[in-house]
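Q: Mind making up any chain with structure tokens?
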Amino acid sequence: MNEIVLTGTVGSSFWEEEYFTAKSVREQIAGLKGPLTVRLNSGGGIATEGQAIHNALKNHDGEVTIVIDGIAASAASLIAMAGDHIVMPAGAVMMIHDPARWCTEGRGTEDDHLKEAQALGVLANAYAGVYAARAGIGTEEAREIMRAETYFDGPAAVAAGFATTTDESADAAAAALFDYRLYPKAPKGLREVGNQLGQRASMSMIWSMMVGASNPKPKEKAMSRKSQRTAAQVEGDDEDQMEQDDPITSEEEDQTDLEDDLEDEVDLEEGEEIDPEAEEEDADLEEDDAAQAQANALGIRRFCASRKIGRDMEANWISRGLSAKQAIAEFKKMKGHTMTKARPGVARTRILRDERSTRRAAMADALHAQIVGRDPATAAARPYMEMSLVEMAAATIGHRGRIRSAGDKINVFMDASHSTSDYPAIFQNALNKVLLERYSEFTPTYRAIAKQKNFRDFRPMPLVRAGDFPTLLPVGETGEIKWGTFGESGEMAVIVPYARGLTISRQMLINDDLGAINDMLSSYGETIAHFEERTFYAQALSASLSDGTAIFDASRGNLAAAGGGITAVSLSEGRAAMRKQESIDGQRLNLAPSILLVGPDMETEAEMIVAQITPTDAGAVNPFSGKLKPVVTTEIVGDEWYLLSERAPCWVYGFLDGQEAPRVRTEEPFGTQGFSMTVEHDFGFGAADFRGGFKNPGA
């Protein structure tokens, strides 16, 4: 059984407690298939991280059961909604409330606050939609529950529709470590858990949580003026770390005086900085600390917004309790005193490994959806649905500027294919999806008469026949068991690799002609299915077994002495011959035909003999009515027909294990003629036995 444990704060650690993130959850469930149990115990955390974890669990390929071991509060309660089954042991608690944010983008103007309120409304409505869908209530009713900061025990959660069952046989674990004093209506028991942390969380830590700090660092103790080190010394200590953390990747222009203006606005008088040691000694300074932390955070946020500085850096400064002036000084030291302003346009952001693979998969899904002309399969692909081929290529290489001419498009494709960008992989992935889809639409008839057995490698695969197994013998009084052996038939199936080159032309790419690409891959998908059909029948019906005798031969008792049409008499002859086939020990196998294989010339006769028709004359009853399944292939020319048993197939076919469909591979990067690619396919088959078939050469 698949099981993961999510304990602690959602998104980050703020009190040196346990925590988990969307990335860690995705890594834990990656590759897991089937039912999944999630043991959840969390007081909440970063709202957007909770949303991402909920979506990751919701998209899991299998049934999800979430057990709330202790508490699921705030963002953790949204995570719980991802379960197909939500179980609450005795004493477990669920808390649902509105997501919050204690800060704004920019300088904190009226517009800034209105925009922040609008963004919070969107997030709250998204949460409400999840809660409403789970409980079967309206979105506005869910919002009222959220606004009220509502607590549920197990039975109450089940009654409200937020849980599916309680488990009275098990007691809940202690609530995860978290400062529940942040929640106005937290019960006394939860507040006591928060008391274990000592001093209430400082405002800098809370602000850091709100902006999504990765791992806040404790605020350094303030020193007296005489013992303070110089700014240069402080900056020097942090320089290496700041260089590693620097998220700014935009190109830069000329120096501005913005940082000087900000320094003037948010500059604090010496002696006004908060002393952490005094804060620990005197809780009465808490309100002053909150006001100071808010002023510092607003100044830092305004500076970061004006310079397009990333959230990680912003959260780092806030969590360390720096003032805006100190943050600006640190940034100057890191970048040099000629700080430059970012050039407007699309910023080049650093992409972590999991984010890069996520974007690659999303782009491939979007391109696949565009080619086949339907909605994307994943929500992550939607932002890329309006992008053309060249725009996707430009996005993968961070191209800036307009793409005006055909020459510009060619240059973008050249750069995207010859650099380390993801575009060739994205394009190849999308083409493979289209080819697989088109290939799967055509089912060759040989698969109805042969058994699939995939090849582990390219070596010939030995086959076991229906008649190869020795029969059972009685055990003597002494308990002696007589041993038998498998028949050494020596039959083999062989797999052969096939391939063909193709080109996605420059014209298709530059013209963004997705329809032409779809048509080309559709024809290839059908062509490969027909290729398998032709290749199989070209050898299967006339194959010889390892003894050198044809699979259908009079000496094997599976070939009619004289050809004839499909009649009750000729079918009876074939059925009798199949039932009389023997194993290596001479035991009758009692095989009955279930398939009638014919060519186009005998299709009507086959349909007539198997039709469900009730005759008026009892003597004209057709004993084969409804007992045989006709299979028609154009690879049979003439009047010959075959009776076959599904229980003992005469042939085996297969593909290379893990490669059961044709695939596209980029052979050469974008060149003068476009993308050169190959379609590759590994396919094999072999004759396994003669006992499960009977041939009539026809009239």
Summary: Residues 210-287, 337-353 have pLDDT under 50 and may be disordered.
